[in-house]
């Protein structure tokens, strides 16, 4: 393992809810000094082929990845699949089912907005015009563009956020099933941004125990703008549950400073890096 490598194992492109096309994301990562990059779009591997083509001439190692939505105790949980085989038939079928869930959820959300006297059909058309899978991020942008709210943050506070009028729960598959998809595709399952879930400390520990029991092998110890205290807490969770550590910016947009590409993402020494298993 080379501890000096600049590694980012959690990023998004326009194939899901990111601002940069896959090739542009790879170029931006290389320019920022990233040497090992995972493209982990939500519930799709559509950007991996073009990202890989752009990575080769830049000397950047691309890790094929995906971020898959799952359910655990009625909570939405995100699992990163790293070093997957994107051509795996089982994974492809599973992601097709995820896409169907996303389209159905978006239709239901927009129907709810119509009931609130907002132009749900027009908002749905705007979301579906985007090249990637539909997301609430796209819907929030459409609400801003149409002048219904001043910002995406307001869209979530007023309509789309947890407990709001247009909060429609998705019927995501169980956590253990999603981990199984990743493992069957030859990948490593890492639990994404564990500190972001609205869970008590004890419930978070149970989530980690269930994740490890289902075959999950890594925890994203550093992500986005985690504070040192959060990093320390996540590192201890990884150690306590026998999980390797992963790092990722959760990059979406170059205009967002808290999750920029190329930022320092150094694991605490107590955690075994997940990339060590891959010979890096």
Number of helices, where a helix is a run of at least 4 consecutive DSSP H or I residues? 9
Spatial strand order of the main sheet: 1-2-3-4-5-6-7
Mean pLDDT: 94
The largest pleated sheet is described as: 7 strands, mixed
SSE order, as H and E?
A: EHEHEEHHHHHEHEHE
Please tell me the CATH architecture of the largest domain by its name.
Alpha-Beta Barrel
Topology:
Blueprint: E1 7-8, H1 22-31, E2 36-39, H2 48-58, E3 61-72, E4 75-82, H3 89-115, H4 120-128, H5 136-145, H6 152-160, H7 175-184, E5 188-191, H8 201-213, E6 218-223, H9 228-240, E7 244-248
Helix pairs in contact: 1-2, 3-4, 4-5, 5-6
Describe what this molecule looks like in 3D:
It is a single chain. This protein folds into 2 domains: 7-87 and 178-278, TIM Barrel (Alpha-Beta Barrel), CATH 3.20.20; 95-160, DNA polymerase, domain 1, CATH 1.10.150. A 7-stranded mixed beta sheet has the order 1-2-3-4-5-6-7. It is built from 9 helices and 7 strands, in the order E-H-E-H-E-E-H-H-H-H-H-E-H-E-H-E. It has 280 residues and is of the alpha/beta class. The protein has helices spanning 22-31, 48-58, 89-115, 120-128, 136-145, 152-160, 175-184, 201-213, 228-240, and strands spanning 7-8, 36-39, 61-72, 75-82, 188-191, 218-223, 244-248. The chain is globular, with a radius of gyration of 18 Å. The protein starts with 6 loop residues before the first strand and ends in a 32-residue tail after the last strand.
